[in-house]
Automatic annotation (TrEMBL):
Organism: Alkalibaculum sporogenes
Main location: membrane
Protein name as annotated: HAD-IC family P-type ATPase
Residues annotated as transmembrane: 50-69, 75-94, 239-259, 265-291, 680-701, 707-732, 753-774, 780-801, 821-842, 854-876
Keywords attached to this entry: ATP-binding, Cell membrane, Membrane, Nucleotide-binding, Translocase, Transmembrane, Transmembrane helix
Species classification: Bacteria, Bacillati, Bacillota, Clostridia, Eubacteriales
Length: 883
């Protein structure tokens, strides 16, 4: 369709766009602009996964043995245990998966749309048929639309066509009915991205009616891959199954050779096999990582995958942009230097359009200063940003540096909208390129004359101006004097007498003939208040901070020094990097933490250099060309406020506040998460050793069985599970950011970890057996002795949680109050243990007997002494332990 036909077809308006009322009406009629995902949480699949595991099969086998032995009560009780095991795993995993899904749904894309004659930003889901959208470099395209106006516009359509090359778009192109998608040069499509220029387009389809919506099944065929941690835990689980089978076989053989009843021995062997496997192991990774994702979201970090959460804890290098991450991203023009060698000071901070302009301390009228007036007009007309006032808060839509120029214009009563009403008409544009480091626009005036306006890096525009050496030296000195004060310097120029047609080719030809440099603007962007402390915390944690910026090397060095980045004396520029091999850069990067005048391509070079040294790298980015570096880094971090939609799509994590301190919080949480998983494994494995060793020792020493099969199940499925799962909510230990980063290749269970588990388990087991032997020696009934042993194991394991909470100290301190889930779990486990001892029903089913206070005194001693011994061992200096 032609532009006129598409306007009529959609009942849109090229001047004002849709009205808010009409847009709301269409949203109600056509629905939200959402591609339905096929990856919904399947309740039945989660339930089936919890039924289809070795624990359930072993419990069913134990139940069958009980029925065959003529013990239906125990058989039915084990079936109840099956139900408990399945339901507890199902509920925990379902809640965790729902939590992950809800957090992922928080990641929203936004679009620029013209409504009621104003360009505004809205959630892409609220776009409707007939909306007039504005697309520029870096934007993700979230609806199918017909282009009605374009300037040097191109988009990547590989999601639809598979072609990696950008497609040039033409608004006046007319397609035939059978033209393929890849050849429709007047259309843009959902799932593609703008790589150059800008365009206005009218939406022709949203949601499932888009081309990508029609083939959305193609997007849902990817199987979910396991995270490295889940793979490690899965291997551990399989190793434990082999160990459990071995234990069961040994116990059965020893018992049969000792003349014990075969059914009883087999049942104990099966129950011990169950005891050897931590029942919640399959779900612990998902649950703990999901809790971490939720915690990070409260700290303004939206993590898109579970694997990214665990990788954060291993980060060794953070490569961060300067602007907006280390700094406030409140670009304010403070100084203007004009071509007639005058310097002006600008009052005010941020985007508030108020403040005097003065020269040598005297307030002046900008329009009376010819050179200054020309510079401000050029800066305003060579910008696409707008300033909006929302609830008395001014913010920029578009590039923050351009926002600073727009505010400067407002302070001088020079506004683009007024200039355009007075006859200035834009006829051409060369969008800013991080490679070329300049932007240019072309305008026709009311009298028919034309002018080009340029802004960009001072060195680039000085080269274009064709000055003599003396003039170059003068301007370079001004540029460096501004940079030495920590300012970002922007050069502004014009070409009068431009006689081209506004095409990029004609504009570039005129640029080669020379430009009139109007002067420089010195822009400040002060460091964030919290960034210095955040960088100190990061470096104390053994993590390097590398600052990457497009600014002048001197500006970069000053900011780096202000925020406390180590190795801040040496600076490498993008031009120098271009002349280095990756191996050379890998060597230089070991002693360099500042990179200036950097392009997005240089960012990828930095990532590759760090990969050579096996660093775990987090890389920030906000532009469309940052996507390769974000993909190449171990953790790609996009800016939620100033980041392009393409950068957000390519990232693993999005900062909703663009702050460096948020990255540090996320790294800390990543460490906490992995440590909590370690604590979980430590606690449950120690508890399993207790039961296995107790049974093995009684068989070897020909003692009566100290604990029954159902009592072992009770410990594993009731008493231990709640405290173990509550470890997912443990707060980080106070010194967690004073430790070196974790090696991502290191196994959770190593020799030292196994010795700690075995040692703790042996102590609790011996304490329980000591109580059993004491009961036998006192002539107590076997039922009383078993109940005492059973309760000693239960309370010994609950006391053990305080050995687990902290690596080097006792776990009862004020930090306990920060984990109410653990307090609740401990109280619940204690109450349930008392219930199983004193309620007649459980006395019959599980084989317990009520106990008097003296016996409880013995139980407390037997369960508490192992914890005292563990803590006493921790007090021994490390040197003495090794000796």
């Amino acid at each position: 369709m032609s532009i006129d036909e598409i306007v009529r077809h959609t009942n849109s308006n090229l001047d004002s766009g849709l009205s808010s009322e009409e847009a709301q009406k269409r949203l109600s009629e056509f629905g939200a602009n959402i591609i339905e995902s096929g990856e919904k949480i399947s309740v039945l699949k989660i339930l089936f996964d919890n039924i289809n595991n070795i624990i359930v099969y072993l419990l069913i086998l134990a139940s069958v043995v009980s029925f065959l032995m003529g013990d239906p009560i125990e058989g039915f009780a084990i079936i109840v245990a099956v139900v408990i095991a399945v339901l507890s795993g199902f509920i925990s995993e379902y809640k965790a998966q729902k939590s992950v899904e809800s957090l992922q749904n928080m990641i929203k894309t936004v679009s620029k749309v013209k409504r009621d004659s104003e360009i505004i930003e809205i959630e892409s889901s609220k776009l409707v048929f007939g909306d007039l959208i504005f697309i520029e470099t870096g934007d993700s395209i979230t609806a199918d639309a017909r282009i009605i106006e374009s300037k040097n516009f191109a988009s990547i359509e590989s999601a639809l066509t598979g072609e990696a090359e950008a497609v040039e778009k033409e608004h006046d192109f007319l397609a035939e009915d059978d033209t393929t998608i890849g050849d429709r040069k007047n259309m843009v499509y959902t799932g593609t991205a703008a790589t150059r220029g800008n365009a206005y387009a009218i939406i022709t389809a949203t949601g499932m009616d888009t081309e990508i919506g029609k083939i959305s099944d193609m997007l849902n065929n990817n199987e979910k891959s396991s995270t490295p941690l889940e793979i490690q835990l899965d291997r551990l689980g399989k190793a434990l199954i082999i160990f459990a089978a071995f234990v069961a076989l040994v116990v059965s053989i020893v018992g049969i050779l000792s003349g014990d009843e075969i059914y009883s021995v087999i049942k104990i062997g099966v129950i011990l096999a169950i005891a050897a496997i931590p029942e919640a192991l399959p779900a612990v990774s998902t649950i703990t990582l999901a809790v971490g994702m939720k915690t990070m979201s409260t700290h303004n970090a939206l993590v898109k995958s579970l694997s990214a959460v665990e990788t954060l804890g291993s980060t060794t290098v953070i490569c961060t942009d300067k602007t907006g991450t280390l700094t406030e991203n409140q670009m304010t023009v403070k100084v203007v230097y004009t071509s007639d060698k005058k310097q002006y000071e600008i009052e005010g901070l941020g985007y508030v359009p108020k403040g005097d302009i003065s020269e040598d301390g005297n307030v002046i009228e900008p329009k009376s200063e010819s050179s200054l007036n020309s510079l401000i007009i050029a800066g305003v007309l060579c910008s696409n940003a707008t300033i909006v006032n929302e609830n008395n808060e001014y913010r920029v839509i578009g590039d923050p540096t351009e926002g600073g120029l727009i505010v400067l214009g407002k302070k001088a009563s020079i506004e683009k909208s007024i200039l355009e009403k007075n006859g200035y008409k834009r006829i051409g544009e060369i969008p800013f390129s991080s490679k070329e480091k300049f932007m240019a626009t072309a305008y026709m005036h009311e009298d028919g004359t034309k002018t080009m306006y340029l802004k960009g890096a001072p060195d680039v525009l000085i080269d274009l101006a064709n000055f003599d050496n003396d003039k170059i030296k003068e301007l370079t000195g001004v540029n460096e004097s501004f940079a030495e004060k920590g300012m970002r310097v922007l050069a502004i120029a014009e070409i009068k007498g431009y006689d081209g047609n506004g095409s990029e080719e004609s504009m570039r030809i005129h640029m080669t003939k020379g430009i009139d440099l109007l002067g420089f603007t010195g822009i400040i962007d002060p460091p964030r208040e919290d960034v210095k402390q955040a960088i100190k915390e990061t470096q104390d944690a053994g993590i390097r901070v590398i600052m990457i910026t497009g600014d002048h090397p001197k500006t970069a060095r000053i900011i780096a020094d202000k925020v406390g980045i180590s190795n801040a004396t040496k600076v490498i520029t993008g031009k120098e990097m271009d002349n280095m091999s990756v191996d050379q850069l890998a060597k230089e990067i070991m002693t360099t933490s500042i990179f200036a005048r950097v392009s997005p391509e240089n960012k990828l070079q930095i990532v590759k250099a760090l990969n050579i040294d096996n660093q775990v790298t987090a890389m920030t980015g906000d532009g469309v060309n940052d996507a390769p570096a974000l993909n190449g880094a171990d953790i790609g971090i996009a800016m939620g406020i100033r980041g392009t939609e393409v950068a957000k799509d390519a990232s693993d994590m999005i900062l909703t506040d663009d702050k460096f301190s948020t990255i540090v919080d996320a790294v800390k949480e990543g460490r906490v998460i992995f440590e909590n998983i370690e604590k979980f494994v430590y606690f449950l494995f120690s508890c399993n050793v207790v039961e296995i060793l107790a049974v093995l020792l009684t068989i070897i020493f020909r003692l009566p069985m100290p604990i029954l099969a159902l009592q072992i199940l009770w410990l594993n499925l009731v008493v231990d599970i709640l405290p173990a799962m509550s470890l997912a909510w443990e707060p980080g230990e106070s010194d967690i950011m004073q430790r070196k980063p974790r090696d991502p290749k290191a196994s959770i269970v190593n020799k030292k970890f196994l010795l700690k588990i075995a040692g703790n388990g042996i102590l609790i087991s011996l304490g329980s057996l000591a109580v059993f032997v004491y009961g036998i020696s006192q002539g107590y009934s076997i039922e009383i002795c078993r109940t005492m042993t059973f309760s000693t194991m239960a309370f010994g394991q609950l006391f053990h949680i305080f050995n687990v909470r902290h690596k080097n100290s006792f776990g009862i301190d004020k930090s306990l109050l920060r984990n109410p889930y653990l307090i609740g779990a401990l109280v619940s486990s204690v109450l349930l243990q008392l219930i199983v001892v004193y309620v007649p029903f459980f006395n019959t089913v599980i084989g317990t007997m009520p106990l008097d206070s003296y016996k409880w005194f013995i139980i407390v001693l037997g369960s508490l002494i192992p914890t005292v011994l563990v803590q006493s061992y921790r007090l021994i200096p490390t040197k003495a332990k090794t000796q």
